[in-house]
Write a structure and sequence with these properties.
The structure is a single chain. The chain is α+β, with helices and mostly antiparallel strands and about 450 residues long. It folds into two domains: about 260 residues, 3-Layer(aba) Sandwich (Rossmann fold); about 140 residues, Coagulation Factor XIII, Chain A, domain 1 (Distorted Sandwich). It has eleven helices and 19 strands. It binds adenosine-5'-triphosphate and magnesium ion. The site of adenosine-5'-triphosphate (ATP) has 13 residues, from helix 3.
Amino acid sequence: MSSNHNNKIDNNILGDQTVIKVEKLSKKYILGAKASSSFRELLNTKVKSLTKSRKSNQEKENEFWAVKDVTFNVNDGERLGIIGRNGAGKSTILKMLSRITEPTSGRISISGRVASLLEVGTGFHPELTGRENIYLNGAILGMSRKEIKSKFDEIVSFAEVEKFLDTPVKRYSSGMYVRLAFAVAAHLEPEILIVDEVLAVGDAAFQKKCLGKMKDVSSNGRTVIFVSHNMGAIEQLCNRCILLDKGQIKMDSTDVRSVIKSYFNTLDNGNLPSEWMYDDSEINRNLLNEWFSPTRIAITDKNGKALNMPVSNDTDFYISISGSIKTIDPALTVGYAIYTADNQLLYWTYHTDTEEEKWPKFKQGNVTFISKLPKHLFNEGEYRIELISSLHWRKWLSEPGVTPAHINLSIQGGLSKSPYWMAKRPGMLGPIIEWDTRNDLVPGERRGIVEVG
Ligand SMILES: Nc1ncnc2c1ncn2[C@@H]1O[C@H](COP(=O)(O)OP(=O)(O)OP(=O)(O)O)[C@@H](O)[C@H]1O
Ligand SMILES: [Mg+2]
């Protein structure tokens, strides 16, 4: 946890609404001098830089821009999410906003008191107790002893560290540490709250509390900047989102969901195709027959337009199976089998799974079967869908487990509206199932058990 109240630089150039103005912000690092590199490597570069007075070409080649020409404004009360792959530059931007790292070039103007919760290990003094650190951080934020005192109990109870208040924080578990650091950052009434990945450390209950607290902070007109890999949390908290890629802004929009979607597109999900088209390759040829020759299988919207993967679990998505019929046979059955990424079959389904009167009457020519995939049934992840077609009981036309005709379904996000359920759960499926709570069902009474005292 680190705090800074000296950020009222260039205060007057900001408009009424703007609390942060970032212009052409860049940060250059020298490779090999990474914080994460080993001590020996670090020593090597130090020795090298001592023995050479000028930058060698080698060193220039080792320069790289962790953040490059980033420009954005943040308005009062905004809840801005910053997302992107590992190494995209998110933490570097937050560190520059918190004045922990100097920009190489560009400029930052901030109006308001900033409290930031960055990586574990910053901000708190390890030798000081929890109690002392709360006062220290309050003082750094420019609060009086009285102000801090008035917030003290709230902080302690939020962090649930009562018992350890007089223990040096170096003895805290990482979970306890983050609880306290978050509680301090969020309760000391900063005008701008900056939080990096805190949710990764806490348990589900704590995550929920943090999200709730950040919402409170912003509903009081304060500004929140939140970095996370948990897209559920970003979706729930943020009303604007920036996608960073290799140190640059790829997208900046109040349509948070569409930014999340682009983020997933930047991830390499193996890029498995979600659309299959018949081509005249050897392997496909035995799919040709007179009753139903498949031409296309795809995950689509209800009009048959192919959807980009991944799809969100709370949207409507369909499977469209097209093919051509030369000979009409009433026993034609078309469907699909769906498997998990580790090849567990989930179910088979056919277009004939209803009363016979409801089956379609086929004509010669092209036909498309469209079937809605149940939303909120699958878990987040990858699934494989294989074509099934047959003349029922008589002949496989395309057999699941054997057929080359298959596509892949990728589901990300939209899992649930619950603050307890923002990431993938264990299990093949992730259905949202209705729950009811009743006080009038007492098991003992129902079973007629009489308690003998
Ligand atoms: N002190 C440093 N010295 C050298 N390189 C650094 C330093 N800090 C970060 N980097 C590099 O800068 C790039 C951006 O790092 P940053 O920590 O900002 O990424 P991030 O988006 O926060 O990633 P993550 O999602 O993994 O937290 C990375 O390539 C990283 O290795
Ligand atoms: Mg980071």
